[in-house]
Amino acid sequence: MGTAVTGSGKTLAFLIPVIEHLYLNKWSRTDGVCAIVISPTRELAYQIFETLKRIGRYHDFSAGLIIGGKNLKFERSRMDQCNILICTPGRLLQHMDENPLFNATTIEMLVLDEADRCLDMGFEETINAIVEHFPTDRQTLLFSATQTNSVKDIARLNLLDPIFIGEKSKSEYIIPELLQQNYLVMELEDKITMLWSFIKNHLKQKIIVFFTSCKQVKYVFEIFCKLRPGTSLLALYGTLHQDRRIAIYNDFTRKSNVVLFATDIASRGLDFPTVNWVVQMDCPEDAVQYIHRAGRTARNKARGESLLVLTPSEEQGMIKELEDKNIHIKKIHIDPKKLFSPRLKIEAALAQNTELKASAQRAFVSYIKSIFLMKNKQIFNVFKLNLENYAKSLGLIVTPRVRFLERLLKKKGSETEIVNESNDFVHEDSDNDDDFLKVKRVDHDLGNNLDDITLELPKKNKILTKAAAAKKAIRKKIAPNEKMNFDDDGNVIIDNIKQLHSEIPEEYENKDGGINIEIAKKVISQEDKYDKERFRQLVKQRHKLQKEKLKKHTDENLQSNSAESESEDDVDLSWLPDPDKIYDSNGKADETEMSLSDDNDSEEPSSKKVKFTSKLTLNDAESIAAHLLANTV
Questions:
Q1: Where does the Helicase C-terminal domain start and stop, copy by copy (predicted)?
Q2: CATH level 3 topology of 2-156
């Protein structure tokens, strides 16, 4: 079990013995896996793998990087050919459970980097399951800047006679000697202004800024990119895709003037060269987390500075905990003249971008939740924070709702007496009414009582199926509702589909004792007779309607055809000559046309005589003449 200050070369301290063990035992690719190195984070595993490639390039050993976010099938097909595995706990356990090519019986060395983090509550079940697959006859190496000495943890790993290597003092040399530690105290709503001003005054330096949650990192990175401080900005947090995380890690390692916003995934073991500043915008959970965050600078006997930003409610408890670990930190003050508030620009950016506004709301809620879930309530008290001003500092006009706090306050308010009932009424004739004006304090010791309350996760409502609802109603002996339809006269409309017609089904339905298959078959056979008869009636009715429609259609066709025939018989005979007139050989009429009126038979004037001017053929004229002669005779 090795303990050393951050940045002192612990990675080489376990990689060199691993390579030496494989070299002395003449381990080859066909011999299987000999050593496994477990890291709590993917970035740290990637860094260890890159270091192993540099120092083991002259050996024939094979090594593999097994982390989440990579191709599982590619890893599965090559695990049996690797001698050294660099992995994270979750992906290693997945291969142990699912990959038939993985054989753990050949393992001779197990290395836990950042062992205290690997053995804590976050990885407890995973590490326990992994250790069960390993043979007991092996060498186990534990390395960390804050090593665990718990007997329980040692027993979990089956360690016999462990040897502790490192400094004798538990905390004297944990922090690098050349690391300058400072802290400042300011209100929560001034943190964004302080961070913006700090970056503007350190544009030519390499800075890591730590936040508590991923959503905070994402929002601050997005809004600062909109504001353009004049230096490169990067963000590293857990919800990013693994390839993107590795690219950001390499980019930050390569650049010299850059700011990295990160969560605690970057606080463990990562070796970033020449980091000038580490700024902890949110108070760390404990002194161990502070040590690992601050240890990203002043590595390998280089100089570095660490700045811890605390709120007034966090100062006393956090400084006391650091002093208990023999960590001495200096308080500094910021010159107000060098502060530049970007609040107006942030509000304008949020007004134009709804997605950015939603990101700010998520960052607000995630910070409140992280503070509420902290274990040390003497340091972290969410009820001492000015949430309204903090929301405004993020650019939000309206403070987002924090539902779990609302439920908690509502529950607490229902348990305390708000106003004494006797104070609701004051008598007019009372001389001594001092007691009536004294209202009982409703929020007395509210903060102290809420500290011990744990957050209750919302219970998932179980989906209630129709079958379960029916069983529940039967158990409670609840009669099911019946739906009845009435006609205009008030008579009940009987639904033949749902109506039982025979006696056997009615008896079976009213009978208790569960389902009887034989009787149910008889019921079905009886009801089928009525169903078939009803079906035949429906078919007959449908056929009758079809016949009526067909007959109606046929009658309409006959009427239309008769109308067309009558119209064809009406021939236009207006061109024929008038039989009452006499025509000459040229086809001209000689006699005057006589017309009879209803009153008298007077002769019409000559002006009203109508002449037939149409020309007749010779044959027509002869036929007309013959007709006239026949009439005269």
A1: 191-340
A2: Rossmann fold (3.40.50)
